[in-house]
Structures are given as C-alpha cells and as structure tokens.
Amino acid sequence: MSTQDLVPSPVGPVDVEQAEAALVERYPRLVRIAYLVLPPSFGRNRRVLTAHALVQRSLPRRRVPGPDVPGPRRAEDAVDPGYAYVRGEVLRQALVAGLPLRRLALPHRAQFPPLLPHVWGLRLFPRVGGADELALDQQLSRLSGAGRAAYVLRGLERQGDPEVLRVLAAAGVEDPAAALAEADALEDPAPAGPAIPADGTEPQQDGPARVGEQGGPGRTGARDQDGHGGSAAVAPGGPALPRRLSGAALLESDEFDPCALQARPTDLMRRRQHARAAFVALVALVVCGTLLGLPGDGWGRNGAAAPSYARNPAAEAALDPAAVKKADPAAWPAATRQDFSVWPARGGLTGDSALLRRALAVWARPGGSVQSSATPGTPVGPPMGPPQLLFAGRVDAMRVVLFHDGLRAVRYAEPVEGTAGAALDFARTDAADTVGAAALVVSRASGNVRYLMAPWVRETAVRDLLAPAKGPRPLGRDADGVTDPLPTPAPAGACTRWNALQVRDREGLRLLTDLGEEAPARLLWGPPSAASDATGTEARKAWARTACQLTAVRAHGVRSVNAWRFARQPLPEGAGQATWVCTRAETWRGTGSRVLAQFLVPSPEVPAALAARSEGSPACGVRDPRVLAGVLWKAPGGAWFVLAAGSPDFTSLETSGGVKGRSDGPLLTVRAEAGARADLDGTLPDGTRRAALR
C-alpha cells in the first residue's frame, strides 16, 4: 500500500506540515526502525539505501484524516500524531519490501531497489559492532518481518504489548499476536566481553589522556588524527569497560545506525573492466559504422587482430590443469634454495582435473560472486604461464587449491556442498626464503586458522605471546602437512591472548604470527643489523608487552616484524627504569613499512604504550637504525614530565613549543604541565637535526 492511499491516522488527523516536521526531527530514528525491520538478506548496503528511501517516501501528499470514531485516550496516544503516522508508514513499507516477488502478482514499489537515494562507486554500511550486536543481528534475521517490527517497537520505541499490537495491525500485519510471540521468544545475545570501538583501535582524544598512579605515557612530538602536532598521554590500564547491554539496548548501538555510515569502494577491478568494455564497444561501434559507409572492400572480420585470448597458446597452457607444475617430492632435501618452488604437491585432490580447471579459470576470470582479496601491492591478474600446484584437498568443508607462480601464492576455495561462496586470495611471496616459505594459510573458519607447513618443518607448536613464562603447546599435523585448528588473534577486542605459530626446522626455532593474510609474518628481536628469531627469554618478555600493537599492521602485506630495545631511561622520583622499544614491520613489496615507538613502564603487567608511529619511514631499520620518540608521563607523586629517548648515536635532545628543555646525550627529562604539548628533535654526531617520529 502506498502513502498516497491515505489510511486514516489512528491517533488523530495529521497535516502535511506536521508530518514533515516529525520526519525531519526524528529522521535518524525512523531510518533506524526501517533498517532493523528490513530483511538482512538485502545486504547492509541495500538495507541502508532502502531504509532512507522508505522514510523519505512516507510523507503524505495532503492532510490525513483521523479515525471516524475516536476511541478513549490512552497513555500511548500521547505520542506526536505526525510521528506516529510517519512511523506507521515506514513500518508498512518495510514489511512490504520484505515480501518475495511473485510471478503473477503486481509488485509493490517498496519491493524494488530504491532509485533515490543512490550512490555510485561506494558501498555504505553502519559501523561494525561487537559480538553482542552480531549475535542480536543473527537472531533478528531468523524472525519474520512482523516479528522484527514487534521487537523494534517494544525495544526501541519502549511500547507496551497493547500498543505494539495496535501499531502492527495498522501497518497491515495479519497476525500481530504471532509477531509479538516471535519477539517474546527472542533472547538477548550471550555476553561477549567488553565493548570496544568498531575499528579495533583505542579511543583517541585531543589532549593528554592521564596515566595512572604508577605513571603512563602519551605521545610527544606526534600528530593526532586531525593533523595537529603535540603530545598525548594514555591511561595505564586502558579504557573503562562498560557492562554488557541487553538486546533492547543494543538496538541503539552504531551497528544498527544507518545514519552513521562507513564507506568502502565497490569492486574496482570489475568497474574498470566494465568501463574498458564500454569504451571498446563504443570504439567498435564507431569503426563499424565508418567501415559500413566506405565503398568497396574493407577490413576482414578480424582485421590485423591476433587470435582471441581464449585461443592464445600461452593463455591456454596457463589454464590447462594437465600443464600445472608439480615439484618432485624428493627434490627439497637436496635443493640449493628451499622455498615454495620445491614444495611438493600435497592433498587428496591433486588429481582432480575438474577442480584444478575451475580454480585456474576463476583465477584468470573471477566472476562477480567470487570473494576476492589481495595483500597490498599484489597483482591479481591471471598467471603468465602454468603455475605450480602446492595443495589440493578438502579442509573444513571446503575444497582448497593452493598455487604458486613465482611471485604470488594464490588460494582458491569452494564449498563441498553447493556452488556459492567461492573465494580467491592473493599474497605476494617473491624472494621467500626458508622461513618465509615455512607455512601458508590453507583455511579460515570459525575464528580458527589452519596452516599448510613446508616439508622441512620438523615440529609445530602454539605459543601465547602474552604468557612468556608458559611453554609452547604441541600443534598436530596430518599426513599432508595441514595443522590442527589454531585460534587466531581477534582483529578487534580485548587483547587477552595472542597465539603464535612456533616451528622448528634444521636451523632452529622460528616464531610466526597470523596477521590476516595468506602468509604468516615472522617475529624477530634485536637491533636491525643483527635481528634474530624472537624465541629467547628476553625477546618473549618484550613481545608479551608489545604483541597487542600488532593490530596496527594487520592486512598490510607484512613479511616480518622486528622489535628491539633502543633505550633505557631512569624515571623521575625514583619510579624505576623505563624501556623504549621500536617495532618495524617490513612488507613483501618493500614499501609501506610501518614503525611503532613504544614506551614500557617498569611494571611487567602493564602493556606497552604507543608513543609514536610512522609509515614509509626508514627509521628503526637496517638502512637507518636511528629512532627518536617522546611521551608525557605522570609521576607517582602527581607531577608531569616530558620523557624522550633516542638511539645511542644521538648527541643531544631538545624540546620546544609548550615545553622547553635540552640535554646532552640520547635521554631527556623535563618538568611539564598537565596537557602540555611540545616538539622534539635531536642532533646526530655530524650536526644533522632529526625530528621525532610522528
């Protein structure tokens, strides 16, 4: 039913101006109601746009009459009639939009994707919430549209059961009592720990965040997210943890707010392909029209063009499963270089030509239903020749194929049952050495990861980086080298555990960690010129306090992460000795490295605090091992100090701006006021001035 039918308002007559005022004033709430009632099968992008469209179409064209026989006044009738009418129209349209299209029935306008608002080139969706919001969204998806409407009216609008039944009946629900029963059966989602920001980072603030009584750091000489320089301080114990919310209260969270949106691009490769195809079609049309107008004979059907791609010999060889390369299983022990090129083909489906053909075809021409991902800087084009087969087998209800073409590791996965849900993942792995080629991710499911181990790996174990005193736990492997499931560090949430993969090869122990990519990253410890695997006692103790900062380099194409202690600094008022650690994440592509300067107070239970960060800087690396950073720190007695430290080759440090001070050598301690901001730089032996990391 359209808003033009002008169903009488059950709460009194409504003028167009009154309805418009209610719509504008309560627009975010109306859109939230529409978003929650719409079926989750639409996808979040379409739900957002449809919710806005339904609300914007709920304005009547003329005055809406009230009921013919006014009933007795109730407490629920105190609501603004304009808002009540618009809300009813929003519910009516949202329920109609969720109805399936029938072949012989005339479709309603709400059942089609909205013409306005329309967004080109972007996908919009609300902010991602926590586990509680996800659990509630999953439970709401199992309800009917009327059941979701009843739950929203009761939880979001705080309406009693009689009023819910009346509103549902007015919105066209055939059995409001059944819808209310569905809402009654919905349970609150189970507790999932403390709430955190949607992007997984700690809350930022414009100014110093105080440190606790034991003292804690902020940032000096850094820029905040708005581009302003200055200092920032962080609390020693992290932000306060709110209590878990009920399902009704969760409806107010950002997870279900279609007015506070995040934007991501659409499939850029497909868009580029479509643009090219349209351009080629236009050029072809112009050329054909021109040739048809010429007298006499013109070009042949194909002119001077080469055979089509499908008939090109090199392309055919790359897509031929019989031409796929397979390394000799006995080749790797005697190989001069142990990398992916000597991995034997393993798995129970290496002889399945149909599976390999599908995997190669999807690699060359991924369809619109394929979920594709690639690490930054990794080309996603088809293979230039027959690739090498590393694995083909069944893992976690998926058929998985792993290829390597000398530059990339490519993972293809398809469900064992059905044809939907194929995935294609690219990871750059060129110049991988023995450790870099020790493992590849073969499966991700239910928060767990499985690795396919290199044939030269002798032992595999799991080590919790946050528990350095705890020994490793053995990790089993099957005959093909696939490990048992290993819980991965959550990309967002309270950092209470960080599982790393410990492997032993003929050279010794290695430590690898999953950063959300196909190839795990190697963890190192020590000065850039002499870094080694982070398996020693000192290294494990340092990584126990800095591992949670690895979330800053997730999905960034990271090859290895090295941490090293570049300074120790006595704290004022006899508070002990602080430690400065620099962490540098190197990438497979060679550019885009990220540097983190971290400050550690004497207490081993307090995690490292991020003092500064930089991307693309050579600092803290082999080419330029120098690093300089500072923090604003509160002493146990309540006084504030600017603390700064540089690598040993700094001859002097100096602060300017809100705090002025100077020292000879790589350490600086200056008394400051709470919230003070300062710029920090240092001098090298040759007189060069170097600014602190920002």
From TrEMBL:
Top-level taxonomic group: Bacteria
Lineage: Bacteria, Bacillati, Actinomycetota, Actinomycetes, Kitasatosporales
Region of interest (Disordered), residue spans: 188-240
Compositional bias of kind Low complexity: 188-200, 231-240
Protein name: Uncharacterized protein
